[in-house]
Amino acid sequence: MIKPKHYYAVMALILSLSGCDSSVSNIENKKAIEDKNKVSQTYSNQVADDKMLLVLSSPSVHDPYYKSAFQRIVDFQINYAESILGNDNVVILVDEDTKPYFTGKVPEDILLVDDVRDIWMRDFTTVNPMQPVQFAYTWASMTKKQSKDVQKSFSQFADRYQIQRAKTDLMIDGGNLVDDYAGRVITTTRFMEDNELSYNEAKQELKAALGATEVAILEPDEEVLAHSDGMVSWVDKNTLLVNDYSNTPSFRTTVMKELKTSFPTAKIVEVPVEYKTNPKGQWEGFESACGVNLNATVTHHNIYVPTFNMPHDQKALTIIKQNTSKKVIPVNAESVCPMGGSVRCLTWQVTGDNAEKLIQAAREK
Questions:
Q1: Cβ atoms of 129 and 181 closer than 8 Å
Q2: CA–CA separation, 303 vs 87, rounded Å?
Q3: Which domains does the chain have, with CATH numbers?
Q4: Tag placement on the chain: N or C end, fewer CB within 10 Å?
């Protein structure tokens, strides 16, 4: 049967309209995806498995202890955050009255208003970002009551944001535990003393608490804090850097023997170190960390290395670059190192769901 001409006209119109609907739908879907991507790109932090979150804690503008160094610490944290963004993720904890000192100088969505009562986030938070464990904070740098108050403020903060972590009653500052996130751990004899353990007992306790396979316990190179993160740094899967203690041969022999015995398959490389002493009356009771380049924050793909405008900085950076596949990012720490710590000491490292919770909280607040 021959169909009338108007039939074909109607069918052509229907097909034409159908095509328009499909085209409009595709355009709308494409636009929705682009909008979603655009929204994601407007955030300073990008949640990804290959990026680690580094959390800094600002001093409070009301804290008399840090009053003399307040602006220097804030400026350091702003500069450090700028170095992190684009490489890893960063959140800075601030109280309401301190926040204005950061506003306009860092992106608003990396500031999280909350109450954590000290700046040395390494020591009283968790160790090993891949499998976080919270130890009991010691009081080497403050009174016993102060240390308990500081760690309580962190515990309450972590609970508020449902930060998942294991806990142990063993006492150690996070700065006295350097690991490769894969079972190899370094501490000092201070851990033995604080927990009243023998050498072998201390090794077994750390293996049990951390799931570690190899543990080294070093004689500390200073007696105030006695932290290992001013002595060594794992900069790659099987590469350990250690300060060059050639100026004290017997001490160097002791340190190298313990490291080689504890990590028989590791590549161990010495890095130059120079020490500055603080002027009389400045941060008394603490050894300056100026000159210690190995107090570095090591993430999946980056190493944030403190520098001090000292002659040996460049040689240290060169050796680090030659012995890692990671990107080496210098961070000037000369404004904070007189207080006894620098880049790693001021950083809490977080990954996975824990990191995502804090990044999201900063965006929403």
A1: yes
A2: 10
A3: 53-363 (3.75.10.10)
A4: N
Contacts of 9 (CB under 8 A, 6+ apart): none
Tokens of 213: 């396979």
In the predicted model, is pLDDT for residue 29 greater than 70?
Answer: no
Q: In a 3-state reduction of DSSP, which class is residue 198?
A: coil
Dihedral (CA of 238, 226, 194, 60) sign: negative
CA distances to 4, 271, 276, 313 from 292, rounded to whole Å, are: 91, 10, 9, 9
pLDDT tens per residue across span 225-257: 999 999 999 999 999 999 999 999 999 999 999
pLDDT band at 43 (very low <50, low <70, confident <90, very high): very high
Between CA 193 and CA 202 the distance in angstroms is 10
Using a 10 angstrom Cβ sphere, with 0-12 exposed, 13-18 middle and 19 or more buried, the burial of residue 37 is exposed
Rg over CA atoms, the chain: 26
Q: Which is it for strands 239-243 and 232-236: parallel, antiparallel or unpaired?
A: antiparallel
CA distance 98 to 93: 10
Q: Are 233 and 178 in contact (CB under 8 A)?
A: yes
Report d(CA 17, CA 280) in Å as an integer.
Answer: 85
Spatial separation of the C-alpha atoms in residues 312 and 305, rounded to whole Å: 13
Residues in the chain, overall count: 365
